């Protein structure tokens, strides 16, 4: 009788876990309209400002990097490419 209770409890837990997993598969993870509007009105213009500022910083540090003999690829990546990619290639509403 005791083993029957354990079997029934295990069966209930297994069914509950499978139902919970099935519900998680149907979750809509697309961004909301509010997130898309916030991204378009606030975050994208700030990203554009960051890109232009990064270009200015890259140009300002470029002579020093060349004097030291370091390749400018790392500062270019940090100052220009990453802000530009965040601003222009990221899907609208995805802020991560």
From TrEMBL:
<keyword id="KW-0812">Transmembrane</keyword>
<keyword id="KW-0472">Membrane</keyword>
<keyword id="KW-0732">Signal</keyword>
<protein>
    <recommendedName>
        <fullName>Multidrug transporter</fullName>
    </recommendedName>
</protein>
<feature type="signal peptide">
    <location>
        <begin position="1"/>
        <end position="22"/>
    </location>
</feature>
<keyword id="KW-1133">Transmembrane helix</keyword>
<feature type="transmembrane region" description="Helical">
    <location>
        <begin position="46"/>
        <end position="67"/>
    </location>
</feature>
């Amino acid at each position: 009788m005791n083993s029957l209770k354990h079997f029934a409890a295990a069966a209930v837990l297994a069914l509950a876990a499978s139902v919970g997993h099935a519900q998680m598969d149907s979750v809509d993870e697309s961004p909301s309209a509010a997130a898309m509007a916030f991204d378009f009105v606030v975050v994208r213009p700030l990203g554009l400002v960051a890109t232009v500022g990064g270009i200015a910083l890259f140009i300002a540090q470029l002579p020093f990097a060349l004097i030291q003999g370091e390749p400018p690829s790392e500062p270019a990546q940090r100052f220009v490419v990453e802000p530009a990619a965040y601003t222009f290639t990221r899907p609208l509403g995805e802020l991560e």
